[in-house]
């Protein structure tokens, strides 16, 4: 499922499968690859920084490798701390401290652990195609306030034209693929759904991530929802949380974040179930809509989602951005960082 | 302003000022402090992990220091990459690579840069009080679905009893404090507001963070909003984005995230303006409500916010959690990690 994700907030994640066996990549590119002999980063010649995420401690740069043709992307991400063997890895004499300042009971230091226990996760893409660079490049983003009129005139024609095939979704619903991964299934054609782990999920409770996919075809996104879908939505909420609690150590519904994306990454309605404490990608207010809010909005006003203004984020590099800009909705003025 | 923030998503930030000159801290504690002589982490005796944030690469542990009385908190956070001098710090022979695997153009490595250019930001609190430990301790959290009835019966009585003084807000509105920090002001008693940098903001465009505070008193949160407040909300939207664009290099409204918190950290209505690309604390869908959505909801239904079910997150350690639990709304069942 993750392989069709295009959410801007996932742009920094590396998923080799996304690009594998693309036609754009010539078979002979392999012979130029640096991967067979690379021992250190001394031969990397920096061209520019594509992205620097201070919160995730992630740096993505473009450059070349001496004696090798083609562009290269180097993606460096500081590692999370591992809770095992902390004494051996961190709390020992190798971890020298240099004091920055102290104030009352607080002391701020710089700590220098030994090299072997403070490495950096590094992904190198070489030779890198234009599409790789575009994917990782930090792009200006904008909020679009999509009125029902703008949806009809701009978004809907765009998504009808550009949307990915939904065959993989139908394969799941029809048991032609991923059948063994299904956590729960209700086959009712109107209110039924399949609950399946998202491909991003590694299986640990801390990062729990499942998707509910309705049997019913033809609901593209929350824009299409009305009071006729309340039984479906409530069934997904109730049966979904019950199935998760049963399968995953009694996890209660109140510790789940249950939400839609708007815009979604594919246009067959689906609902995300994640562990509330997990900062999953795409849970920001300009992207995620709680299932409880969606149900309540429809209960308050059956036609809510065909009348509401829905906001979402577009990158300047996306075609939807240029369509909105051509329509005069978005300012052409953009502030670039540095 | 930040000093009254209690949002769970900020619990991992260290702000020494929050605790400074507290009465709980005896003056003589200084003599037990480790800060005068600490050279490395070899004397730290780990008791338990309080928090481990894999996204921020942040580890917070409780323990003691040999030969020193009192508990200690050690907070380690991997550093963000600095874009200057990358060749000197990273792209050189010291940065040894160890290959994990390769696949087509993708290679995954472990990189071991030199010690001096790969340090960890470390904060040590010693002696640490119970309140320090409680602040950093990872707490189970739950989503409450607050109906209008639950708001009246539980949340409203709670917040009337427990809310912080709003004197500091009135001081800003009455020019008794922070007058020189005001970015924009409209003195109209009904639709006017003050726009002022949030205390968290360091002044750089990448982390832009301002607050709009209405002149009008008595609106506690979005719960209290109705159609009579539309002129106020639209004035804040229009005059606020205009003032920001004028003051900050033409930053367009479409590159701002404009939102309320629910629950807010203080109960005088206020609106957050942040740079859209900045992952500010508290922008998750279970906490942040876009101003554009709030205006649209009231336009669709004047009484929306007195009729809607509003979801928000509570920590199990909060009194509001126990009140909801005693009311039978939240399950007492909670899944602890490990």
From TrEMBL, chains A, B:
It comes from the Eukaryota. InterPro entries: DcpS/DCS2 (IPR008594), HIT-like_sf (IPR036265), Scavenger_mRNA_decap_enz_N (IPR011145). It catalyses: a 5'-end (N(7)-methyl 5'-triphosphoguanosine)-ribonucleoside in mRNA + H2O = N(7)-methyl-GMP + a 5'-end diphospho-ribonucleoside in mRNA + 2 H(+). Keywords: Acetylation, Cytoplasm, Hydrolase, mRNA processing, mRNA splicing, Nucleus, Phosphoprotein. Residues 1-31 are annotated as: Disordered. It is an enzyme of class 3 (hydrolase). One of its GO terms (biological process) is deadenylation-dependent decapping of nuclear-transcribed mRNA. Its EC number is 3.6.1.59. Substrate binds at residues 168, 178, 198, 200, 261-272. It holds the Pfam family DcpS_C. Homodimer. Associates with components of the exosome multienzyme ribonuclease complex, such as EXOSC3 and EXOSC4. Interacts with NDOR1. PANTHER family: HISTIDINE TRIAD HIT PROTEIN MEMBER (PTHR12978), M7GPPPX DIPHOSPHATASE (PTHR12978:SF0). Decapping scavenger enzyme that catalyzes the cleavage of a residual cap structure following the degradation of mRNAs by the 3'->5' exosome-mediated mRNA decay pathway. This is m7GpppX diphosphatase. It comes from Neodiprion lecontei. The lineage of its organism: Eukaryota, Metazoa, Ecdysozoa, Arthropoda, Hexapoda.
């Amino acid at each position: 499922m993750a392989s069709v994700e295009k959410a801007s907030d996932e742009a920094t994640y590396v998923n080799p499968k996304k690009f594998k066996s693309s036609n754009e990549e010539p078979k002979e590119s392999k012979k130029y690859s640096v991967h067979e002999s690379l021992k250190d980063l001394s031969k990397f010649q920096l061209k520019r920084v594509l992205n620097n995420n201070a919160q995730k401690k992630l740096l993505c740069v473009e450059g070349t490798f001496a004696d090798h043709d083609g562009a290269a992307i180097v993606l460096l991400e500081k590692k999370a701390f591992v809770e095992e063997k902390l004494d051996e890895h961190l709390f020992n004499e190798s971890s020298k401290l240099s004091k920055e300042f102290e104030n009352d009971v607080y002391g701020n230091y710089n700590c220098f652990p030994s090299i072997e226990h403070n490495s950096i996760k590094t992904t190198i893409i070489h030779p890198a195609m234009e599409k790789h660079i575009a994917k990782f490049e930090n792009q200006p983003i904008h909020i679009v306030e999509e009125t029902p009129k703008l949806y009809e005139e701009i978004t809907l024609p765009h998504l009808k034209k550009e949307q990915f095939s939904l065959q993989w979704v139908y394969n799941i619903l029809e048991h032609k693929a991923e059948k063994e991964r299904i956590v729960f299934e209700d086959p009712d054609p109107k209110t039924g759904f399949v609950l399946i782990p998202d491909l991003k999920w590694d299986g640990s409770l801390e990062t729990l991530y499942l998707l509910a996919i309705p049997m019913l075809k033809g609901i593209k996104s929350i824009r299409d929802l009305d009071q006729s879908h309340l039984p479906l939505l409530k069934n997904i909420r109730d049966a979904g949380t019950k199935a998760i609690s049963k399968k995953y150590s009694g996890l209660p519904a109140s510790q789940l974040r249950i939400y839609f994306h708007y815009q979604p990454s594919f246009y067959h309605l689906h609902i995300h179930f994640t562990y509330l404490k997990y900062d999953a990608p795409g849970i920001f207010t300009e992207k995620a809509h709680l299932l409880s809010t969606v149900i309540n909005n429809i209960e308050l006003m059956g036609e809510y989602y065909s009348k509401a203004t829905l906001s979402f984020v577009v990158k300047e590099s996306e075609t939807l951005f240029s369509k909105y800009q051509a329509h005069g909705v978005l300012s052409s003025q953009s502030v670039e960082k540095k």
